[in-house]
Design brief:
Blueprint: H1 3-15, H2 18-25, H3 29-43, E1 48-50, E2 57-59, H4 61-81, E3 90-96, H5 98-103, H6 106-115, E4 119-125, H7 128-136, E5 142-145, E6 154-162, E7 164-169, E8 178-179, E9 190-191, H8 196-205, E10 214-215, H9 222-225, E11 232-236, H10 237-242, E12 249-254, E13 261-268, H11 273-291, E14 296-297
Parallel strand pairs: 3-4, 3-5, 8-12, 9-10
Antiparallel strand pairs: 1-2, 5-13, 6-13, 6-14, 7-11, 7-12
């Protein structure tokens, strides 16, 4: 039994006719009949029931089972033949912050998942220090962070930088487009710890001992607490552009704004061959995606 025997029988099973199978295979009918008989003798089962006149046949239960196995065998055979050309899917583990995973990178992840069978993405949402540790220990292939820490075995690339804005409820007391930070009461802030540079900027304007109205870990919660006059929050441009609450909040620039937030992509200095290939594929998508961003891009 060889590949041709299986292909011949599958053609017979599909057409329910030896003569039709012969034509589709460009073989003589006697040759097809002989190969079928040899296959049955080898397997010691009847694969077909020949009806009177010999024009049509009926596939036996054993023949149906053999056809199912034959289809699987051929599929595996073709995969083995094309092994040198096949590129296996690589899992790429990406660790990033909540604001990036949920607000900025979703279109990028969707594009890769739909269009590239070479990568299987595993997305992790972590805090910045956890991201550095995951990349350093090679438990994550790529990380996205908002400050550039010095790790011996980690390399970083600047991806983009973005501005921060003040947001508050509609019809606020701040009619001017620009808001002086001294006008704001830190006790009314809906606070998210976006990055160290924003924390340092806060400490310059307000007493660090003063607690905010509420500490949050997701911008999704802003609208739940912005229903009273005076409530305000600091929000980065990427979240403003992807979180559609423009009709529910006012957006103001600061007269003296926080430093722009820089995003870095980090990876291990010594990736495996498979990791390096997966990272290279991801970076090609990231460059195209980043060029469409409306803020300053380094890639």
């Amino acid at each position: 039994m060889d590949q041709l025997d299986i292909e011949i029988f599958l053609a017979i099973a599909k057409s329910q006719s030896i003569s039709k199978a012969s034509k589709s295979l460009l073989m003589s009918q006697p040759a097809v009949s002989q190969r079928l008989k040899s296959l049955e003798d080898e397997l010691q089962v009847n694969l077909v029931l020949r009806k009177k006149g010999g024009r049509t046949i009926e596939i036996t239960d054993a023949g149906i089972r053999f056809a199912n196995m034959g289809e699987k065998w051929l599929e595996l055979y073709h995969e083995m033949v094309n092994l040198k050309n096949a590129e296996p899917a690589r899992q790429l583990t990406i660790a990033s912050t909540n604001s990036l995973n949920n607000y900025l990178f979703l279109p990028l992840f969707n594009e890769i998942s739909k269009c590239d069978k070479r990568l299987r993405l595993f997305i992790r949402t972590q805090h910045t220090l956890e991201i550095f540790e995951l990349v350093d220990s090679k438990k994550a292939d790529i990380g996205f962070v908002f400050h550039d820490a010095k790790y011996k075995d980690i390399v970083s690339k600047a991806v983009f930088r973005e501005k921060f804005y003040m947001i508050c409820g509609k019809n606020s007391a701040w009619k001017e487009r620009l808001v002086e930070p001294s006008w704001l009461d830190p006790r009314d802030e809906l606070r998210i710890s976006w990055c160290p540079s924003v924390e340092q900027w806060r400490d310059l304007w307000w007493n660090p001992a003063v607690k905010p109205y509420i500490q949050l870990d997701s911008p999704y919660l802003f609208l739940n607490f912005m229903d009273r006059e005076g409530r305000w929050a600091i929000c980065p441009e990427s979240v403003l552009r992807t979180f559609h609450f423009e009709d529910q909040v006012e957006v103001h620039e600061f007269t003296d704004p926080p430093p722009e937030r820089e995003c870095f992509m980090i990876s291990h200095k010594y990736p495996s061959e498979s990791q390096a290939k997966a990272i290279s594929i991801f970076e090609s998508y990231l460059r195209v995606f980043a060029q469409k961003l409306p803020f300053s891009v380094y890639l």
